[in-house]
């Protein structure tokens, strides 16, 4: 979901509030056209020259531009909503797929692995399902590779080479696209466990957890839950993931671009470009050629499609389960196809912007309209021409800029979709699925806590099946239908009572 009320939620900073609204992007145009309006007003007021045009052009162009800007904003918001629907589809298919794997694939397969090996196998595949959404998040943000704090721990188990030969040219595309010459090698397999914001070496576990360990874990959990969210100094959800000593530093899970001076003063970007151009001209020729060659080399590096690679591994696992019943296999393949189709739709939204010619023509037309607006309204508004032009610029350019900003809702803007929140929410739900122990239904259906025929009959299921004479099983009861007929009569009485009690007489 998008960020909720970023103006009034979270840590209060003036710059954050300023960047949340669209004013940060349109205030240079507001200043420019307000100055034009001020010039027109002062010249017409204090000189004999009257800068006045007929307002016929205002009516015609105003209607056309309003309709065009409305179409531009509506098309962008449609992409925004479609992106949200696609992420809902990923969450639904991921949970369905995890439920099929966890519940419908048995832990005991004839001639297969042991129950413990089956549990490890299924949990590993569900970790890959979680990795799919994380990989989609990084892909949509233009962050290539797999070496991220929230992605690498989930997929580091996957093979790196096409055969037993570990030659660099034998590395699979999933990993080759992320490697560079500055950090070759493989990650160490020594396990670590996270402690706070750091890591320490994990001891070798032998035996089972003792009660003190469980009590200590529960106590820490209660203390963590008792602290208010705004009082917690750090938020590090990646500390619950597996940890390994990696041969290269992992990139952060969330790495928004830092705000610079040019983000608040747009004219500064032009000055920086001039400065870089001058510095490049002053650079020695051999150094400039070396940097240009390195830049060309980086562009031709192998680019792997990480979400697609994860789908392929999940599909190969489905093919490996040749003992799965056809209905379960069909459900797994159907959800995998949905994940792949949804991913392609997200890629279409992210990498198919509106044509530049359309955007440029619309903006230039709007600038011309706003430039000549003061000339057409001064005769009627006088001094109000200045605030009127400023408000017209704020409205029209603001809607145009909003359409441009939400056109790609997968970046780090404060008004974009909360992809990190989506992935963390799905992570919690997948762990909730794997926490399900698949109990025997008899263990909870026929218990003293179950009153299946309430409100008419409030006896528990354990009492009903414990034996003895009652109207559901014994013909001794006079005037009462024994057996299933009596059960049906109880259910009809339930319907009457529920229908009567649940209707509010005030709303009748």
UniProtKB/TrEMBL annotation:
Designated name of the protein:
UPF0187-domain-containing protein
């Amino acid at each position: 979901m998008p960020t909720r009320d970023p103006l009034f939620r979270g840590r209060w900073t003036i710059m954050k509030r300023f960047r949340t609204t669209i004013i940060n992007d349109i205030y240079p145009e507001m200043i420019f056209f307000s100055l034009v309006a001020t010039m027109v007003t002062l010249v017409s007021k204090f000189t004999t020259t009257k800068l006045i045009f007929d307002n016929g052009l205002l009516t015609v162009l105003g209607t056309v531009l309003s309709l065009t800007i409305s179409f531009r904003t509506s098309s962008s918001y449609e992409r925004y909503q479609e992106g949200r629907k696609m992420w809902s589809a990923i969450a639904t298919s991921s949970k369905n797929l995890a439920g099929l794997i966890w519940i419908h694939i048995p832990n005991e397969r004839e001639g297969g692995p042991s129950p413990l090996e089956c549990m490890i196998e299924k949990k590993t595949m569900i970790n890959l399902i979680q990795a799919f959404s994380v990989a989609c998040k990084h892909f949509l943000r233009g962050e290539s590779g797999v070496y991220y704090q929230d992605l690498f721990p989930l997929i580091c188990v996957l093979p790196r080479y096409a055969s037993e030969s570990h030659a660099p040219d034998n590395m699979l595309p999933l990993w080759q696209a992320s490697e560079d010459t500055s950090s070759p090698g493989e990650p160490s397999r020594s396990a670590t466990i996270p402690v706070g914001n750091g890591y320490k070496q994990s001891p070798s576990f032998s035996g089972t957890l003792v009660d003190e360990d469980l009590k200590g874990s529960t106590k820490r959990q209660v203390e963590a839950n008792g602290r208010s969210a705004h009082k917690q100094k750090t938020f590090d959800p990646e500390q619950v993931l597996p940890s390994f000593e990696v041969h290269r530093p992992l990139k952060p899970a969330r790495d928004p671009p830092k705000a610079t001076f040019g983000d608040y003063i747009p004219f500064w970007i032009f000055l920086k470009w001039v400065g870089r151009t001058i510095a490049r001209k002053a650079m020695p020729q051999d150094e400039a050629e070396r940097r240009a060659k390195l830049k060309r080399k980086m562009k031709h590096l192998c680019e792997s499609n990480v979400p697609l690679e994860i789908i392929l591994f999940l599909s190969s696992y489905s093919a490996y389960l040749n003992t799965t019943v056809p209905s379960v296999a069909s459900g797994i393949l159907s959800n995998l196809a949905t994940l792949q189709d949804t991913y392609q739709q997200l890629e279409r939204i992210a990498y198919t912007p509106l044509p530049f010619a359309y955007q440029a023509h619309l903006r230039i037309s709007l600038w011309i309209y706003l430039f000549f607006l003061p000339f057409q309204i001064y005769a009627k508004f006088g001094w109000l021409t200045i605030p009127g032009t400023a408000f017209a610029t704020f409205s029209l350019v603001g809607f145009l800029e909003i359409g441009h900003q939400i056109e790609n809702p997968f970046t780090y803007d404060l008004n974009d979709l909360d992809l990190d929140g989506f992935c963390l929410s799905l992570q919690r739900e997948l762990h909730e699925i794997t926490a399900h122990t698949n109990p025997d239904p008899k263990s909870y259906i026929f218990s003293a806590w179950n009153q299946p025929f309430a409100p008419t009959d409030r006896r528990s299921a354990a009492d009903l099946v414990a034996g003895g004479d009652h109207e559901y099983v014994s013909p001794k009861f006079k005037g009462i239908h024994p057996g299933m007929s009596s059960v049906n009569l109880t259910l009809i009485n339930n319907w009457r009572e529920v229908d009567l009690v649940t209707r509010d007489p005030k709303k009748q």
